[in-house]
Design brief:
This protein has 386 residues and is mainly β. Helix content is 9%, strand content 39%. The protein contains 3 helices and 25 strands. The strands form 4 sheets. Strands 2, 3, 5, 6, 8, 9, 10, 11 and 13 form a 9-stranded mixed β-sheet that branches. A hairpin with a 6-residue loop joins strand 24 and strand 25.
């Protein structure tokens, strides 16, 4: 997902256009010249390029809004001019906005997103900003985090008016020019390849997702790497078919609430290759086998974070779990065996290179997104979402 940001700054005059990301592609033609004295020949190479969907794009009609001269405690005052937001992309976009604290010379007002007023709990040095939608006659109070304002179709526009509630009497800033920003964000509306089912962010669901993520046993393919150094599972420049596999066994799988919608997880893991993995490093080719039981400690340790998230609306109902911050440690030199000739018996560099690569691959097996199966039959690995 790509987004574009624009700011509306207090007391600035120049208009601003949202950033537009453009992709330019080119083709190089190949000309085959005739060698003197030889018959001419020619050939043709067909080529094509697939152009990705355009990034989100917005234009703002102004780059500055002025609220004029207001007293402390003023409420719901409109700024001028109004702000027309245009979707300059070729697809629907979700429009969001956020605000900033207001600052002056020796004065700061914190942006407050609540219904508090000077008559009750707003207190001093706090203020409100809002965007009034002139098309729909609705208003959204802004916070320092992005809040959704609505969806805007391709080439469509929406008219906003900025409104302010100044800090209460007794606050700092009297006689000062207070400046703040309204930040717009447009994100492409992307339809995932599956329908995401609602998920309850609680301990039982976190435990069930962890049990899917780390079952008692699961086999994984070892991806082929045919370029660079080392080359893995790609003897002779051709990926192994079938690919070698690693058996992963997990025990002591636990999850602990970490605050908000996040859960920290941990597990004890033992691993073993089901087939030898061909590997070439610095011109030496060997077969690699791994068995965590061979080392002084028979298992590896795995930790990760599961975060309940919402797509496509941030902050909406949770419908998938993002698994990240995966860390797998504990693989030892004794866990790795090399075969394939005399050079392999001396290739200690293989092992020092392969240990972090193998642990990184284990982490890649676990990282990603988890969501409910469409038939409510448990969890599945779901696509990477913007």
């Amino acid at each position: 997902m790509q987004g574009t940001r624009d700011s509306v700054r207090h007391l600035r005059r120049a208009g601003r256009r949202g950033s537009i990301l453009a992709v330019t592609t080119s083709m190089l033609g190949l000309v085959l010249g005739a060698t003197p004295g030889l018959a001419a020949d020619n050939g043709q190479v067909d080529a094509q390029v697939t152009v990705s969907a355009a990034a989100a794009c917005i234009e703002l009609s102004t780059g500055a809004v002025d609220f004029g001269t207001l007293a402390l405690g003023a409420e719901n005052q409109a700024g001028a001019p109004g702000i027309t937001v245009t979707n300059c992309g070729d697809a629907d976009a979700t429009i969001m906005a956020s605000g900033t604290d207001a600052t002056g010379t020796g004065a700061t007002w914190g942006l407050v997103d609540s219904g508090a007023t000077c008559a009750d709990t707003l207190g001093t040095d706090g203020y409100h900003l809002a965007l009034e939608n002139q098309n729909a006659a609705t208003s959204t109070t802004l916070s320092t985090g992005s809040k959704e304002l609505g969806t805007l179709g391709a080439a469509a526009t929406v008219d906003h008016v900025a409104r302010i509630w100044t800090a209460c009497p007794g606050s700092s800033g009297a006689g000062q020019v207070m400046s703040m920003s309204i930040n717009y964000l447009a994100t492409s509306v992307v339809t995932p390849p599956i329908v995401l089912e609602p998920i309850t962010a609680d301990q039982p669901t976190a435990d069930a997702a962890a049990a899917y993520l780390l079952p008692p046993t699961r086999d994984y393919d070892v991806p082929a790497t045919c370029t660079g150094d080392p080359v893995i599972a790609c003897a002779g420049g051709v990926p192994s078919n079938p690919l070698p596999q690693v058996e992963v066994n997990a025990t002591n799988v636990t999850t602990t609430a970490a605050g908000g919608d996040a859960w920290n997880g941990s597990a004890t893991i033992d691993v073993s290759t089901l087939q030898a993995i061909p590997m070439t490093y610095s011109g030496v080719s060997c077969d690699v086998t791994v068995d965590s039981a061979n080392g002084a400690v028979a298992t590896l340790s795995g930790t990760y974070t599961m975060t309940f998230q919402s797509y496509p609306t941030p902050g909406g109902p949770t419908n998938y779990i993002a698994v990240g911050n995966v860390n797998v440690t504990g693989l030892e030199s004794a866990d790795i065996q090399l075969t394939g000739g005399f050079s392999c018996s001396l290739a200690s560099a293989f092992i020092s290179v392969y240990i972090p690569m193998f642990q990184d691959q284990m982490e890649a097996y676990l990282a990603g997104n988890v969501c409910l199966a469409p038939d409510a039959g448990g969890f599945i690995a779901c696509p990477t979402l913007p």
